[in-house]
Amino acid sequence: MDSKFQKIKQYIIIIIGVFILFVLSFQAFYTHQTNRINNLSELNSINDKKMSPKDLYLDAWRTIKTNYYSNDLNHQNWQRWKKRYLGKIETLDDAYVAINTMIASLDDSYSKFMSEEEFQEQNSAINSKLYGIGVNIASISGKIYVINVLDGAPAMQSGIKAGDIILKVDDVDVNGKSIYQVAQLVRGDVNVNLNVEILRGSEKLTKVVKREEIKIKSVEYKKLDENIGYIRVSSFIGMNTPTDFIIALNKLQNTNGLILDLRGNSGGLFQNAIIISNLFLNKGTIVNVIARQGKKNTYSAESEGCIYNNPMVILIDHNSASASEILASALHDNARATLVGTRTYGKGLVQKVFSLPNKTGMNLTIARYLTPKFKDINKTGVEPDYFVVLNHSDIINNTDTQLDYAKNLLIKQQK
After folding, report:
1. In the annotation, is 333 catalytic?
2. 260 contact partners, CB below 8 Å, separation of at least 6
3. 20 to 30 A from 166, CA-CA: which of 41, 56, 208, 236?
4. Which of 218, 322, 324, 329 is labelled catalytic?
5. Residue-wise pLDDT tens digits, 260-311
6. Is 322 a known active-site residue?
7. Residue of 317, 333, 352, 355 marked catalytic
């Protein structure tokens, strides 16, 4: 009996040792990758330095002049902006208006100035904190559908259900608005009641929902039938996303195939896409980044980073953008995954977050990127291998035509 017990004990010690080695190896890989691309990171800390409104404007002017990816700054003499508001900026509001006007001249919708409040909100999202009601939404034919409701979230407590169509938020009609615009209506200060008008079937209902802090869970996973793994990544914005992803992938390590769902994922941190791409690639280019003055940086997979080699299908749609497109293109161009769904959004530019004085900040485009096969997807998007549309009936009946198609592809590959 003692001998048998000793063998079991030794076996447990070996298992624990293997697990610790796995965790340490991943942590080393994660740290290495993060350091490699730190110069293109979208992370930054709060700048507490106080400046006069005039100096804040000039600091923003210098930041753009030095870092914007296009040398000609949208075919204009940038020096004129330095002198344009001389003697006219007296308050912070004046500075904000002047900076926003200056940035608008770049004709770049991804570059934007952030007030102290807006910068704080973005940092909260990076730290996996959000203030809202706890729903995932999708825009289908101009209508905003509730895809799912987070367990225990304010929306669930107020009776909002998957399949509901959001009509109004505090008397603001959301018909035809983008997901981002609706999300901005829902987010804000905690402990504030929102009146959300929904359509359920043919019945209009108004739900009073209290806005609260929502802990973002960007990675969800499960095992489907036929021994197929499924991982959904709703956002790449959180610093914990790679760690959560590796945990999910480890749980699904023994599956025969994997479905990676990037639908509705509008992107996030550049380095998160690099790290997760490498989990499926032991060689090859992940992305080519073209910075100011044509300087090229190529990010390649490292063999020790790959931990999953079985067949893959990636689900994409028009709301898959930025980091989602980097990941999808990396795995597709390296013949590592098949793409199912609809054409992606088409955001082929890289932004960096700059901290400005007075706790303000700026998202500024510092580079553009090309896929491993040197395709520029900006404003064109990534085409799926199999074009499959999600129908209205899928939302209403809680079915998923795209997911079913992806699953059937993997099943056929197993035979």
Report:
1. yes
2. 231, 233, 312, 313, 314, 315, 327, 337
3. 236
4. 322
5. 999 988 888 899 999 999 999 999 999 999 998 888 999 999 988 899 999 9
6. yes
7. 333
The bridge status of strand 165-169 relative to strand 135-140 is unpaired
The reported pTM is 0.73
